[in-house]
Amino acid sequence: MLKDASLLRKYSRLCPLLHRASVLAVQSNLSSSCTSSSACRPQGNFQFNELYKPGDVILGGIFAVHFKAIAPELSFRTKPEQWKCESFDINVFQRAQVMAFAIEEINNNPALLPNVSLGYRLYDDCMNLQVSLRAALALIGGLGDVRADSDCKGRPPVVAIVGEPLSTHSIAVSRTVGVFSMPMISFCASCSCLSNKLEFPSFLRTAPSDAFQIKVMAEIIKHYRWTWVGTVGTDDDYGRYELRSLNQELESFGCIAFSEALNVNEKGKLLNVVKIIKQSSAKIIVVFLTKMDAAVFITEIVKQNITGRQWIASDSWSPFPIFASNENFKSFGGTIGIIPRRGVIPGLETFLLQLRPDADPSRILYKQFWETMFDCKFSSNVSVLANSRICTGSEDLGNTKTEYSDVSQLRGSYNVYTAVYAVAHALHNLMSCENGKGPFQNDSCADVATMQPWQLLHYLKKVNFTTNTGDRVAFDENGDPVAVFDVINWQKNAEGKVISKTIGMFDESAALGHQLSLKEEDIFWNFELGTIPESVCSKSCLPGTRKATRKGEPICCFDCVTCAEGEFTDEIDSVECQACPPDFWSSPKRNKCVPKDVEFLSYEDGMGITLTATALSGVWLSFGVLAVFIYYRRTPVVKANNSELSFLLLVSLILCFLCSLCFIGKPSPLTCMLRHVVFGISFVLCISCILVKTIVVLMAFKATLPGNNMMKWFGATQQRGTVFALSFVQFLICIVWLVSAPPVPAKNTRYNNAKIIFECDIGSVTGFSCLLGYIGLLACVSFLLAFLARRLPDTFNEAKFITFSMLIFCAVWITFIPAYVSSPGKHTVAVEIFAILASSFGVLVAIFGPKCYIILLRPELNTKKALMGRDIVKNQ
User: Mind listing the pLDDT tens digit for each residue in 28-48?
Assistant: First the structure.
């Protein structure tokens, strides 16, 4: 619908003067004449392109039949001439004819306004604000009319005005006629600012408010996930208001790439806006322009060969798909428009084709229409263009196919039709004042002969009726109708003609969430392969990434950053990543959480198999040594080394090798307790045996000295008791540890967040320290005693081997401490097992290796004589 006016900025500054001028003009037109004669005559005279038909009640109308006005010379040394109009618009003229048709139809309807005939006076404002204001003043002042009643009472010249089509003109005109409470019903003005009843108390419209048009645009943009949008509007109050409103709607889910106010009359400004569009990455552009401005804008876009844009057109220019014809289709084909619903007016086409030119000056628009339609001039105008073809007046309208006779897309014209019927129903209700009790002061009714505009306005706001085609007409508290829009798409039909195809509808009265419906299969997308365009500043972040805004840029411009380890997001365009639950870890793509790998030293992995084989080898080796010692228990070598302690030591070594197997496999409460208890007791038993053997060696040497009889106090019973006592201390330590804070299975994520290290938590650090400390104490004592006895005069001095074994044992466990602390995960357990096996092998080899060597490989040395090469003291 038409909304632009180049003089609105000037009007906004002169608005108060115009208000006062209009009041004074009308008052002076009436009152001054009344005092000078018995009749009221308006002062001054304006010349308009008009249509007039007399009637009992006259309706005024303002239409933009010409869309170009030429200003006169304003020297003010002579009386200014009238504005001249050019460029007759036959499509808009159809709207004026629809008003005439509706009035004729109402006059022929005996059920509506019986005994009252309607007339009309329609003026052409030439799409110019000054002409529009003059037309409004002429209508309410009765230009050319003579009032016979001396007191100037009675009905005003017109009771209501149908128009203005332009929003910017409606703002100015409504503020003027609103002073007199003159109802003004626009059929095209859709600026949502006109819903303000404090500023525009007498303004109503049959065209939906732009607040809903903007809502439809925003819904479509949101539906297709277009978040990077450019907007262009007229450089006036209306255009800026619409751009601001749309930008506010879009900011809730997207961003504005650019928002430009355009004045097509300023070439530099036009070129600058076109340059911005060309350079912008935004593919979706919403345009609020009048039909005239859109024509200039489209020409420049096509001239600069700008393609690959999806245009969303306001209802001002979207009803004219001819803009996309021929070479323009490459740039503007596929344009989506938002326009009021299409209506049906039965019998209109016949009425339109019945028009004939008229010589009556009050019907001058008929002649102008005829000359435009048939490209001719009537004889009175031939002097203007000498080479023009002469109109005969008998040309056949039926043979023409133009927008004038096309009744398939009645939108603005249909709004004119409903506006006239709304006034007629209001008049009918005013005349049907029930029981003589009306809504006015003292319960009075209005008299149609003397009614005032404000009385008609009262009824007009309350009309609620259904048209012949079943459409409901009513106004809300803001004077707006129920918003119903068609969503159209510019595309070519089978004949190659560009048409407006309806692809959807918006119905304000529908349930929330179902107001907009689209037939997506019917939409033509003017892009490669007919694909739906994409318009984003930054492409959507896939699951597994989050949006990181760029400094100084809109929120729609961002980088996609991969979620950190342990975080995920399974949504598109996620603002932040979520942390995975404790036992889960993010997948490689960071789009979901997966259970963490549970890591422990198992029998299935290579390290576990190797350590298990090594431990079993130690067990079998110990069994082998034990078997050799049992088999050769009566030989001197076995007898000379305290066979009973040797057997017990070998059993303890077997336990040491076996306890390492408790460290392999999935930890459980039982294995966690067993691994440390068995380890502590078996090693204490082993070291106790070595310690007792060392003590026996020392005592045996001392017993060889004269007068020393110590061995009888440390015989076999005392040796067993000592081993038991030393082992029992470790047993008590283990019991206290297990009772107070036993080792339990635990999930460790300190070393590797992506894995769960399933291990045994030692529970009490003090208990574990006491267990190891006690083993270390016994090992140190054994080492010191053996070290002192290493040089005893003995051919086969076992103290040397004990010293060497304890040296290996201490070295292994001293090295174990830093290795244990620094080894993460299952390697910690592997280090502990390695220490157990290494120390066990060290004791087994160091103490029993030389003996087995003699027994098995050097049997000649396994004799009493060989062992007593020097003074040998047998221990048993």
Answer: 343 334 444 455 555 567 788
pLDDT given for residue 790 in this prediction: 65
Range list of H helices, 447-564? 453-460
Phi, psi at 68, each rounded to 5°: -150, 130
Q: Reduce the DSSP state of residue 91 to 3 states and report it.
A: helix
Beta-bridged to residue 593, according to DSSP, are 586
3-state secondary structure of 137: helix
* 475: helix, strand or coil: coil
- Round to whole Å and give the CA distance between 818 and 837: 17
Distance CA 393, CA 378 (A): 8
Query: Contact 799/792 with Cβ under 8 angstroms?
Result: yes
Residue 763: left if φ>0, alpha if ψ -120 to 50, beta else—which one? left
Contact 663, 630 (CB under 8 A): no
Overall average pLDDT of the 583-609 stretch: 87
Most confident of 308-322, 384-398, 747-761: 308-322
Domains of the chain, each with CATH number or no CATH: 8-207+346-375+423-432 (3.40.50.2300), 210-343+483-530 (3.40.50.2300), 545-595 (no CATH), 606-867 (1.20.1070.10)
d(CA 860, CA 871): 19
Most confident of 103-112, 126-135, 399-408, 448-457: 103-112
- Residue 200 gets the label, from left (phi > 0), alpha (psi -120 to 50) or beta, of beta
* 3-state secondary structure at position 58: strand
10 Å Cβ neighbour count for 144? 16
Which tokens is 605 given? 């992995």
Cis before 164? omega within 30: yes
pTM of the complete model: 0.62
Angle, CA of 603, 604 and 606, to the nearest 5°: 95
**Which range in 358-362, 613-617, 700-704, 753-757 is most confidently predicted, on average pLDDT?**
613-617
| Per-residue DSSP letter, 316 | T
C-alpha dihedral sign at 865, 869, 871, 876:
negative
Tell me which of 144 and 783 has the higher pLDDT. Answer: 783
Q: How many C-beta neighbours within 10 Å does residue 2 have?
A: 28
Q: How far is CA 338 from CA 5, 92, 505, 814, in A?
A: 21, 19, 9, 85
Given a contact cutoff of 8 angstroms between Cβ atoms, the answer to whether 145 and 154 are in contact is: no
Q: What secondary structure does DSSP assign to 807-873, as a single string?
A: HHHHHHHHHHHHHHHH--THHHHHHHHHHHHHHHHHHHHHHHHHHHIIIII-GGGSSHHHHTSS---
Q: Enter the tokens of residue 100.
A: 């005439």
Kindly report the length of the chain. Answer: 876
Give the relative orientation of helices 167-177 and 8-36 as an angle to the nearest 10 degrees: 30
Half-sphere exposure of 855 toward its Cβ, with a 13 Å CA cutoff? Answer: 23
Place of tokens 């990434």: 545
266 backbone dihedrals φ, ψ, rounded to 5°: -100, 105
CB 423 within 8 A of CB 183: yes
Q: Tokens in use for 486?
A: 């068609």
Q: Which amino acid is at 718?
A: Q
Place of tokens 């120390």: 839
Q: Write the DSSP assignment of 188-247 as a string of letters.
A: S---GGGG-TTT-TTEEESSPPHHHHHHHHHHHHHHTT--EEEEEEESSHHHHHHHHHHH
Both structure tokens of 299: 């020409």
- Rounded to whole angstroms, the Cα distance separating 231 from 254 reads 13
Q: With CA atoms as reference, report the closest residue to 459 among 480, 442, 445.
A: 445
> How many of the other CB atoms lie within 10 Å of CB of 690?
28
> What's the pLDDT tens digit per position in 236-262?
878 888 899 999 999 888 899 999 999
pLDDT value for 446: 86
Please, which residues bridge with residue 761 across strands? 744
Q: Assess whether pLDDT exceeds 90 at residue 112.
A: yes
- Which backbone phi and psi does 487 adopt, to 5 degrees? -100, 120
